[in-house]
Amino acid sequence: MGDLYKALSDPTRRTILDELADRDGQTLFEICSRLIMKHGIGASRQAISQHLDVLEEAALVRTERSGRYKFHYLDTTPLHEIAERWPLPQKEPDR
Amino acid sequence: MKINVTSVLVDDQAKALAFYTDVLGFVKKTDIDTGGGRWLTVVSPDAPDGVELLLEPDAHPAAKPFKDALVADGIPYTSFAVDDAQAEFDRLSALGVQFTQPPTPMGPVTTAVFDDTCGNLIQIAEMADA
């Protein structure tokens, strides 16, 4: 598996995860459109595709072919590793 | 010089004519038998003398791999202007049209992407200040 922390270290890759959290199951075209139109990130389609490969190797993104289309889905499961390594504080009960 | 015709490569001209007229709502403008195929164009009913869309056969062997690669990545072949992207999404979805992207605000535009059933994805775009 690819390195989780390296995958999360890049701001463009974090923005891709933000946009997949906004709507799961996007084509490469939609991801590129959101990056340029909403965030001014005018990277090439090839560059975005490479970012997606890094995210997919870290299991933060998985792809599914549906008919003739390929969609990208967010998978936050690997983030458990972070909370297990550095446990979160217990939630204080509501006052 | 001016642009008076643009084209989409379709896998079946009769099917394309039905989809682009009955479903999308364009009207047939020119239909000439050219032997191997038809010079078949549609126009918007709002602009009958405007740019014509040529429904062009995709018989060239390079066309299908090209179209498949675009579709796999969700890339629309062309884009049409609409007044209300959500209303068109609702109307076309009710007619069974499949969208790869629902209406999504993208800065100054709201866009959506659907399958034209002839091997292409098509974008519709609503300008915020239209």
Structure description:
- The complex is a heterodimer of chains A (95) and B (130).
- By secondary structure, chain A is an alpha+beta fold.
- In chain A, 51% of the residues lie in helices and 13% in strands.
- Chain A is built from five helices and two strands; from the N terminus they run ααααββα.
- A two-stranded antiparallel ribbon of chain A has the order 1-2.
- In chain A, helix 2 packs across helix 3.
- The mean pLDDT of chain A is 94.
- Chain B has three helices and eight strands.
What is the CATH level 1 assignment of chain A? Mainly Alpha
Helix content of chain A: 40-55%
For the sheet with most strands of chain B, the description reads: 4 strands, mixed
In the CATH classification, which architecture of chain A applies? Orthogonal Bundle
Which descriptor suits the 3D outline of chain B?
A: globular
- The chain-level mean pLDDT of chain A equals 94
Summarize this entry quickly.
In chain A, 51% of the residues lie in helices and 13% in strands.
